[in-house]
Design brief:
Largest sheet: 7 strands, mixed
Number of helices: 6
Strand content: 15-25%
CATH superfamily: Spore Coat Polysaccharide Biosynthesis Protein SpsA, Chain A
Strand order of the largest sheet: 5-4-1-6-8-7-9
Order of helices and strands: EEEHEEHEHEEHHEH
Number of domains: 1
Structural class: alpha/beta
CATH class: Alpha Beta
Length: 206
């Protein structure tokens, strides 16, 4: 890493399509999706903070700081990212950048942070976003901590909750990954996705 990056793990959603509960706590190959994410991402970051709402007892054993949204009404991923950026600004002022990561993506790449850093620096962009197979993954992104002020204004004063609307205000870089033999940003949104993830894992372990 050329500079310290903090990770914000986003577990604040309602997981309606998964039938409720934390998608990251679903088990895949004997481990939770969240534990797989942490194993991949922790070595790439200075530290991790977990955004989660409700009773945090279910996640306390992970040993990471847990911060809830402070924008009311489940305002979506932007609110979770904002909570993480605020916490990092208060506790790790030496960090100028943070990466946001959803907690339903079990196959993240080992070069995620480095590739996003490179894309952002080479284009002098504000935000760097992961892409794969023609799809953009705005929740997997590198953010300046200082952007939290603009983010709070958009969420609270302007009621802008859609990631795309906010991102479009800023200069964006993209880092692209191949989707063969599997998409590294595969996400488990629905119960059948766990079955598909088991198939991918079986192939990886062959």
């Amino acid at each position: 890493m050329t500079e310290p990056i903090f990770g914000v793990l986003l577990a604040g959603g309602l997981a309606r399509r998964m039938g409720g509960g934390d998608k990251g706590l679903k088990v895949l190959g004997g481990e939770t999706i969240l534990s797989r994410i942490i194993a991949t991402v922790a070595p790439q970051c200075k530290g991790l903070v977990l955004n989660a709402n409700g009773d945090t007892a279910r996640l306390i054993d992970l040993g990471f700081p847990i911060v809830p949204d402070d924008v009311p009404g489940f305002a979506g991923p932007l609110a979770g990212i904002l909570a993480g950026l605020d916490w990092i600004a208060a506790h790790h002022p030496e960090c100028e950048l943070a990466i946001s990561i959803p907690t339903d993506t079990p196959f993240l790449p080992a070069d995620l942070v480095a590739r996003l850093q490179e894309a952002r620096a080479s284009t002098k962009a504000d935000i760097a976003i992961a892409t794969s197979g023609g799809s953009t993954h705005p929740v997997v992104a590198l953010w300046p901590i200082a952007l939290r002020h603009d983010m709070r204004k958009a969420l609270v004063e302007e009621q802008i909750h859609k990631m795309g609307f906010f991102i479009d205000r800023h200069k964006v870089a993209h880092a692209d990954w191949p989707v063969k033999p599997y998409d590294p940003f595969f996400n488990a949104n629905e119960p059948q996705d766990i079955t598909e993830a088991e198939k991918i894992l079986a192939e990886l372990e062959r």
